[in-house]
Amino acid sequence: MATADSNHEAHWQRTKGLTITVLAIWFIFAFVVHWFAPQLNEFSILGFPLGFYMAGQGSLFAFVVIIFWFARAQNRIDEEFGVAEDADDDE
Questions:
Q1: What integer is the mean pLDDT of 63-72?
Q2: Rounded to the nearest 5°, which phi and psi values hold at 48?
Q3: Can you give the three-state secondary structure of 23-89, one letter per residue?
Q4: Is 77:13 a contact under the CB 8 Å cutoff?
Q5: At what angle do helices 59-80 and 2-27 cross, to 10 degrees?
Q6: What's this model's pTM, rounded to 2 decimal places?
């Protein structure tokens, strides 16, 4: 039983670390980039100021990438600890 508890604790520690990492990245793109928009506007992408581009498009793109990256990383953690949802089991 101690092995199951330690396995559960290790799984939770990895999941918690991944969640904290994702939240930190989300915070950067949701708030920090926008706080520094005036300074970012000194640079341009395709003729648009970088601050405007990050607020209008870049952050949204980053959020979508974060979602897919988080799902893939969490699935790897789940597989490592033997708790992954496997679609092949339904057959």
A1: 97
A2: -100, 145
A3: HHHHHHHHHHHHHCHHHHCCCEECCEEHHHHHHHHHHHHHHHHHHHHHHHHHHHHHHHCCCCCCHHH
A4: no
A5: 170
A6: 0.77
